[in-house]
Design a protein that fits this description.
Strand content: 15-25%
Radius of gyration: 15 Å
Largest sheet: 5 strands, mixed
Helix content: 25-40%
Mean pLDDT: 86
Low-confidence stretches: 112-120
């Protein structure tokens, strides 16, 4: 990656290339991954920080592909856990510091509602790229109890 390992445009291009196309899930997952990593103090997820991350994703959809691409975490490496609760959410854990955050896409309650016209003008992705993070996501510090069998292999 470039000097800024979490550059949005570069990360989005990487996620798009991995997934095969650019959709709302790839855009949202890219933003979620960047926000989650920064919140737990991970700046180089595929380099010097690669051994200090575990991610629990709560869906098995496009968002997961983006998070996998940006974090470098994989189920086969045992540092990505896929728990299909059907939620647009993921919990990012820094194993070195113990800090953990859950990032989820806000629902329309208490948030600015995206209109159909906005979506039609910006199909699938632009609205989620431009919307301020605080309007689109909740980022909550959480406590995660990891069992020995949860740890990367």
């Amino acid at each position: 990656m470039s000097k800024d390992n979490l550059d949005f445009k570069k990360c989005l291009e990487d996620a798009k290339a991995f997934h095969g196309d650019l959709c709302a899930g790839i855009t949202l997952g890219t933003r979620m991954a960047i926000l989650g990593l920064k919140a737990i103090g991970i700046n180089d997820p595929k380099g010097e920080d690669r051994k200090y991350i575990i991610v629990f994703v709560e869906t098995d959809r496009c968002v997961t592909d983006a998070i996998l691409t940006i974090t470098g975490c994989h189920p086969g490496k045992r540092n990505m856990k896929i728990l299909d609760y059907g939620k647009m959410a993921a919990t990012f854990i820094n194993l070195k510091t113990g800090k953990a955050v859950r990032v989820n896409v806000k629902n329309k309650d208490g948030n600015r509602e995206v209109t159909r016209e906005e979506i039609e003008k910006n199909p699938h992705t632009d609205i989620y790229t431009m919307m301020p993070a605080e309007d689109l996501f909740n980022i909550i510090e959480v406590s995660v109890e990891l069992k020995p069998q949860d740890m990367p292999g």
